[in-house]
Amino acid sequence: MRKRGYLLLKASLVMVMLTAQVAKAQQWGNYTLYAPQNGTTATMIDTTGATYHTWSFATQTAYATYLIQGGTLLRSVKKSGVSFSGGPISGEFQKLDWNGNILWDYSYSSTLHCSHHDILAMPNGNVMMIAYDRKTAAEVTAAGCTYNSEMWPESLGEVQQTGPTTGTIVWEWHLWDHLVQSVNASAANYQSSIVNHPELYNINFNLAKDFMHMNGIDFDPIRNQICFSSHMLNEMYVIDHSTTTAEAASHSGGHSGKGGDFLYRYGNPSAYQASGSTVLNVVHDAHFIPEGVPNAGYLVGFVNNGVSMTQSSVDQVSTPKNGYNYNHTAGLAYTPSNYTLRHACNGHTSNQGNAQQLPNGNTLVCMAFLGSIYEVNSAGTTIWTVTPGGTLVHAYRFDDCYINHAAPALPTITATTTDLTSSAGTTYQWFLNGEQIAGATSQTYTPSVSGIYLVRITDVNGCAYYYSNDVTFTMGSTIGIAENEKNKNISLYPNPTTGILYMDNELLNGGNFEVNVYDVYGKLVMKEKNPSSIDLNGYDNGIYFVSIVSEKLGSVNRKINLIK
To answer: Residue 269 phi/psi, 5° resolution?
Structure first.
């Protein structure tokens, strides 16, 4: 139906009040989506500036509006009667179909919390939201902070729809679980050195109620990680999403082994008392460059005062990735010390704004307070510009395929003791520990090492990439996939461990058994027969896979976090 509607619309195009300059041969995509902040419409235009489609709303848009493949719109809503004030408070988000019918209307607003700024459509259909948590002055003092007033620390919540207006938070992360302070040894979170704990937030760095002001969020499906940006702190951060909610509240667990602690941060070394220049000056729209786009995996921010106080920039950062972690020298600032690539924007917006990196190397830039959107090629030449006016927080470019073909079901993986097999797709690509496996492009893959695997497929339409959940595979078994039910309660403890793992009595009394320990890259690092415990004291912190084969019990496989 949308195809037919598009043909009818093309027969009677109505030009909107825009100024469009076009160089079609160099452009990527067909349609650009924007929705003014505090407005009640979202508009999609083609590359001539003509209106292709519009949505109208009964309520104002608070901040972010996104298009989900197949034509579903996701928007943050400016909810009335909320208990929080300031920057783009939302308290509600909606999903709408192509015709504007509301598919889901979810509120997250109380005296204790409220969603604000950005939202994110997750590949599984859930929605990730940024929210404030309210902490009393007493709670702030107990956390070792010298600010004697309430604070609004940030949180993230992944919501799964359960009805037209209801949802369940299936994963959450709270900054308040990851604090450090060095001023009060008798209070919580005390460490004598801040610089030695950059994985935590120094609660005494910015003494204000809204001390972080998170404003942008994105998801990397290959590494199962989240990035976000902070207006007040001039930083971008990466955290692990592969954790459980309990692990996200701790300092261990997940693929990184670090729970919900920061895996990486960039932009302002002084925030964790490291030496180095502050290289971000008011940053929005933190995001990863996706696979299939030049510089895939780079971290990107829209820096409002990037070039100067009168010229913004889009900065790309090649982060020091190392598997599911990031290289870092204790006591020093995270690298790099400055951006890897920069686009100096066509003007300045003192707040908000975004950029989108496109598959052909072009960049779409949205200058929020200027009300303008433009496209530049890889040489930095402006090839298209349009000025709808208003405050344009974000703008995004899409092709016809993305709009008119619904996304297929995400791929799933089934396993045997030797093989991993994807559900059906048109093309396949396998990944190990967050890295593409060269030549692994068949529906079935035979691992040669233990590790964490996922598969990416395209469907017959080829509109986008679709990623499976990641699965842990141990050579000779299928840890986390097809373990014998009777062995699932057998434990190796404690986990996380500081070095010594003890064996369940059922294992010790189950006859002869062999223990194989693999590191996160699948390398066999230990092999023993019938031990009463496993000693990992001689190994580096991180994730290990323990595979035990018992003559009576069969296979027992566990993922272990070593934190000494």
So the answer is: -60, -25
Q: Is 550 left (phi over 0), alpha (psi -120 to 50) or beta?
A: beta
d(CA 313, CA 438): 35
Cα–Cα distance for residue pair 172/159, rounded to 1 Å: 9
Tell me how far apart the alpha carbons of residues 529 and 514 are, in angstroms, rounded to a whole number.
Answer: 4
Can you count the helices (H) and strands (E) in the chain? 5, 44
**b or e along 124-161 (b: 16 or more beta carbons within 10 Å of the residue's beta carbon)?**
eebbbbbbbbbbeeebbbebbbebeeebbbbbbbbbeb
Instruction: Identify the pLDDT of residue 513.
Output: 84
Q: How far, in Å, CA of 503 to CA of 509, rounded?
A: 10
Using 50, 70 and 90 to split pLDDT, how confident is the model at 482? Answer: very low
- Where b means 16+ CB within 10 Å and e means fewer, 176-211 reads bbbbbbbebeeeebeeeebbebbbbbbbbbbeebbb
Tokens of 526: 């230990």
Per the CB < 8 A criterion, the answer to whether 35 and 73 are in contact is no
Residue (of 398, 516, 477, 348) closest to 43 by Cα position: 398
The string of pLDDT tens digits covering residues 483-503 is 455 566 778 889 989 999 998
Q: What is the pTM of this model?
A: 0.84
- Euclidean distance between CA atoms 209 and 213, whole angstroms: 10
Confidence of residue 515 (pLDDT cuts 50, 70, 90): confident
Q: In 3D, which of 164, 283, 277, 263 has the Cα closest to residue 217?
A: 283
Each residue's pLDDT tens digit, 144-178: 999 999 999 999 999 999 999 999 999 999 999 99
CA 152 to chain centre: 21
Name the band, by pLDDT with cuts 50, 70 and 90, for residue 55: very high
What is 79-114 written as a DSSP string? -SS-S--STTB-EEEEEE-TT--EEEEEE-BSSSEE
Residue 4 pLDDT more than 50?
Answer: no
Q: Which residues share a beta bridge with 218?
A: 227
**Inter-residue contact 381 to 347 (CB < 8 Å):** no
312-342 pLDDT, tens digit each: 999 999 999 999 999 999 999 999 999 999 9
Alpha helices, DSSP H, located in 365-421: 400-404
Phi, psi of 264 (to 5 degrees): -160, 145
The whole-number pLDDT of residue 521 equals 61
Rounded Cα–Cα distance for residues 30 and 290 (Å): 19
C-alpha closest to that of 456 among 436, 438, 472: 436
Q: What is the DSSP letter of 557?
A: E
Cβ neighbours of residue 7 closer than 8 Å, sequence gap 6 or more: none
Q: How far apart are CA 283 and CA 117, in angstroms?
A: 13
**Do the beta carbons of residue 530 and residue 488 sit within 8 Å?**
no
**Domain segments of the chain: what residues?**
413-473, 485-562
Q: Between β-strands 372-376 and 382-386, what pairing exists: parallel, antiparallel or unpaired?
A: antiparallel
Strands 435-436 and 427-432, how do they pair?
antiparallel
CATH number, domain 485-562: 2.60.40.1270
